[in-house]
Design brief:
Largest interface: A-B, 37 and 41 residues
Strand content of chain B: 5-15%
Number of strands of chain B: 9
CATH class of chain B: Alpha Beta
Strand content of chain A: 5-15%
CATH topology of chain B: Rossmann fold
Order of helices and strands of chain A: HEEHHE
Strand order of the largest sheet of chain A: 2-3
Distance between the termini of chain B: 23 Å
CATH architecture of chain B: 3-Layer(aba) Sandwich
Structural class of chain B: alpha/beta
Shape of chain A: elongated
Number of domains of chain B: 1
Oligomer: heterodimer
Strand order of the largest sheet of chain B: 3-1-4-5-7-6-8-9
Order of helices and strands of chain B: HEHEEHEHHEHEHEHHEEHHH
Amino acid sequence: MSPVQQRLAMSRPTQGAAGKTGTWRVFKPVVDKEKCNQCGLCEMYCPDNAIDADLIVDLAFCKGCGICANECPKKAIDMIREEK
Amino acid sequence: MDTIAEIPKEEFVLKCTSACAGCSDALTLRYVLKAAGQDTVLVVPACCTSVIQGIYPNTAFNVPVYNIAFGAAAACASGMSNAFRATGKKTNVIVYAGDGGTLDIGIQAMSGAFERGTDFLYICYDNEAYGNTGMQRSGGTPMGARTTTTPAGKTDAKKDIDAIIAAHSPPYMATACAAYPQDLFKKVQKALTFRGPSFIHVLAPCPPGWRFSTEKSVEMGKLAVKSGMWVLYEREYGKLSINPQSKAAIKKPIPLEDYLAPQGRFKGIDAKTLELLRQHLAKNIKKLSAEAAES
């Protein structure tokens, strides 16, 4: 980035730009790796890209919407109440 | 058939936007940017997307974004696209607007840009109300749906924006749904290969606005397609082709109630409105099927 660009009052791409959204969560997804067949549908449907290619949920950012648990064809994901 | 493997792993929406849990706008945007790639500029009028980007000086979007006034998105994109082409750049210019910014407030700028033949892609993600300000009725709200400004249910039908766009004869236009990301990805990729204006209308189920629980976003999108309320198709140089998912839904639709019942906004819908909604649906399907048979 050139010095001129650096002075511009514009937002820059950063992870966590909206804070750690994981704190919003009421229910967290827990994956049963025994039932999981690695189809990747949870990763595909996650609106916030909180599930990586190895199908590990990033709990710092997962908002706990539960789409992954609802769409899992093997019912391998359970939504468990968060203990604070 | 596209497999998940064909979709690039690279993400242009960083973790994580401030969209509501289960937001299908965020899901749609993920796939739009995956299909468009790094060399893209987003033009965003006032809509949910303009408030979910993060807090200054940070943004969750890893592509340049131009936030612009509600009615000006397509006009801005016109100028931007012309400037890029004049300097020999192939940068994709994508307007990413909500249904309010497309069907109601942004329609004149959009119509102008389509008439001028601007080389850009207009994506309307349709959550069928002004979601960002708390679900006020928009031109996209279907008949019978309760919003904060139509507490007894909307009495008018949803505006047929696709017919309005089709009247401009763009080289490419399509409908998609957030519940079918692979289809959406394919359509965005295809739309960007056309020189001239293209349009994609994406149904984006909204958990707080439509009043269903967050985990049902994707399910609701699928129900909309399966019940025929939302028809997936693409129109290339005037030639209409209906998606296999929607072809199956037209042949053997699930009952409309299966789609309406889980949504709080249709709670207590009266029989007369339901009948009107059903007639409207049948008319739309008949019109599209006839056009598909002709072309």
